[in-house]
Amino acid sequence: MIRLLAIDLDGTLLTSEKTIHPQDKAAIQAASQLGVTILLATGRPISGIRDYFEQLDIPEQPYAIGNNGCLTLATKDWSILDYHSVPAEQLSSLYALLEDFPDLNLVLFTPHANYALGKYLNAAAIRDAQVESSILYHSRLDDFLALQLPVLVPIFMGETERLTAFQKRYEANLSQHYHPVRSLDHAFEILPKGVNKGSTVLALAHKLQIEPEQIMAIGDGNNDTELLTVAGLGIAMGNATAAIQSLADYTTTTNDQAGVAKAIERFILSQ
Question: What InterPro entries would the database entry show (predicted)?
Answer without folding.
Answer: Cof (IPR000150), HAD-like_sf (IPR036412), HAD-SF_hydro_IIB (IPR006379), HAD_sf (IPR023214)
